[in-house]
Amino acid sequence: MGMTMTQKILAAHAGLESVSAGQLIEAKLDLVLGNDITSPVAINEFEKCGASSVFHKDKIALVLDHFTPNKDIKAAEQCRQVRNFANRYQITNFFDVGQMGIEHALLPEKGLVVPGDCVIGADSHTCTYGALGAFSTGVGSTDMAAGMITGKAWFKVPSAIQIVLKNKPAKWVSGKDVILHLIGMIGVDGALYRSLEFAGDGVKHLSMDDRLCIANMAIEAGAKNGIFPVDEVTVAYGKDRFQHEPVVYAADEDAVYDETIEIDLAKIRPTVAFPHLPENTKTIDEVGKIKIDQSVIGSCTNGRMEDLRAAASILKGRKVAKDVRCIILPGTQAIYLQALREGLAEIFVEAGAVFSTPTCGPCLGGHMGILGKGERAISTTNRNFVGRMGHTESEVYLASPAVAAASAVTGYITDPEQLTEGERK
Amino acid sequence: MNAHGFVHKYGDNVDTDVIIPARYLNTASHAELAAHCMEDIDADFVKNVKKGDIIVAAKNFGCGSSREHAPIAIQASGVSCVIAETFARIFYRNAINIGLPILECAEAARDIQSGDEVEIDFDTGMIQNRTSGKSYKAQPFPPFIQNIIKKGGLLNSIMK
């Protein structure tokens, strides 16, 4: 029986010829990741069980990105604990304020994850790296601690849903619309315990930034991982970037999938997820008139260069509506610098938006844009659960950077095409 | 090993943001996390929960973030077991890894009501509802996972 792409990577890392769905295995890890919220719990566990060394100082990444620059004294103490640990064990890939970016934007950018890798991270959006053809999945702090000690993790081999993408997406339709559309179809537990394996000739029309966004939100369908085949786009992205040798795996021709879902990318419309679940999706045409108080553009889902360019293309020469707060957060320092060089920062500030340092901040209601009672945000982040961005009676609508930027201008959830067309007429 | 307590019942997709809101993630203190457990879905939970109590929920319990603070908050608030129709996968791992017993049992998750008195035998997977008199059999853990639990969590099982 053939194996899925995920199964082949897991088999190779478990030192097995083949694996099948449901099998429990122990796999070697190429990278173990933690952030300023999950690492302190892992470090406490690490120390409590008497560990005195890490399995490999180059294969651990510690990124202080959630409540940084430190939002309060407790956050500062958590960062201090992680910083001390990184120094004590000489962790090579420790990223503090000034070097840090949002972890899932930063690690691919630095070339720390390459095709064929097996990665765990104490952050649920670790599944982002599936865009590169790697197996990566989110775990908790205890798994992170065990991973740092042994360089291994246990997995139940997942079965998979194959997502066959066809044709080319239309203008203003991005990776975010594709993944929201899919989650709307299968639900927030539609891929529970399973892999989402993307395939089909539509893949070649998706940029790496689109793929990173799509794989990032695989967890919002309950998936263990989301994974893309390695192609020219991957190779071009990795040139002069990948820090170690990639290994390319492809699903067997006779791989068995639980089901296959076909998506015609040409038919997808800009998509918005209504409160309070990412599966509550509507196309932009079905949204109706929804007034917003805040627009957030950024996060590990949509804080990359193409996202900022899409937002800038709409905000250029326009103004953020008077009663809207527009907060734009680049994913990394390199993206921040590139946005300055391309003149995007100027566009944002002239439009009346805030252009911040990289941070996860508002996405999880940490800082840098918390919502008050009854307030409503359109956001390019990944979750719209009750209280996710602040008050339990606030609301988050998930959308692409283009929709979030167009909405910031009008003050209502808006189709970018309508805004740009309307003004041209 | 047994659990015995009164039930707090919730619906589908109880996410980690309502189990322990991110605004409290600036601490890893178990007691502080327990003080805010379930706050955004059930403000009275912390006031009402007693040692040994049981959480019963429907589908996809613990979906969302990987924060281990969620099962830690539940465990530290005195809850002895979570029964659900299904669990989100990271929550499932985290609960096992920290030694919080969880059981998947669709029938029990549907039938059992808030306030019911429930007794659980983890060796057999039997769930007895003392209030209604009905009993259920939960999916037992595979031996690999039983071993982690028996050794008192993942780190104990690897450090031995």
TrEMBL record, chain A:
Its EC number is 4.2.1.33. GO terms for molecular function: 3-isopropylmalate dehydratase activity. SUPFAM superfamilies: Aconitase iron-sulfur domain. Residues 8-286, 287-411 form the Aconitase/3-isopropylmalate dehydratase large subunit alpha/beta/alpha domain. Binds 1 [4Fe-4S] cluster per subunit. [4Fe-4S] cluster binds at C300, C360, C363. It catalyses: (2R,3S)-3-isopropylmalate = (2S)-2-isopropylmalate. Pathway: Amino-acid biosynthesis; L-leucine biosynthesis; L-leucine from 3-methyl-2-oxobutanoate: step 2/4. The keyword Protein biosynthesis does not apply. Its cofactor is [4Fe-4S] cluster. The keyword Amino-acid biosynthesis applies. It is an enzyme of class 4 (lyase). Keywords: 4Fe-4S, Amino-acid biosynthesis, Branched-chain amino acid biosynthesis, Iron, Iron-sulfur, Leucine biosynthesis, Lyase, Metal-binding. Belongs to the aconitase/IPM isomerase family. LeuC type 2 subfamily. Heterodimer of LeuC and LeuD. Catalyzes the isomerization between 2-isopropylmalate and 3-isopropylmalate, via the formation of 2-isopropylmaleate. This is 3-isopropylmalate dehydratase large subunit. It comes from Caproiciproducens galactitolivorans. The lineage of its organism: Bacteria, Bacillati, Bacillota, Clostridia, Eubacteriales. The gene is leuC.
Automatic annotation (TrEMBL), chain B:
The keyword Amino-acid biosynthesis applies. This is 3-isopropylmalate dehydratase small subunit. Its EC number is 4.2.1.33. Heterodimer of LeuC and LeuD. The keyword Transport does not apply. Pfam families: Aconitase_C. Keywords: Amino-acid biosynthesis, Branched-chain amino acid biosynthesis, Leucine biosynthesis, Lyase. Pathway: Amino-acid biosynthesis; L-leucine biosynthesis; L-leucine from 3-methyl-2-oxobutanoate: step 2/4. It comes from Caproiciproducens galactitolivorans. It comes from the Bacteria. One of its GO terms (molecular function) is 3-isopropylmalate dehydratase activity. The gene is leuD. Residues 41-103 form the Aconitase A/isopropylmalate dehydratase small subunit swivel domain. Belongs to the LeuD family. LeuD type 2 subfamily. Catalyzes the isomerization between 2-isopropylmalate and 3-isopropylmalate, via the formation of 2-isopropylmaleate.
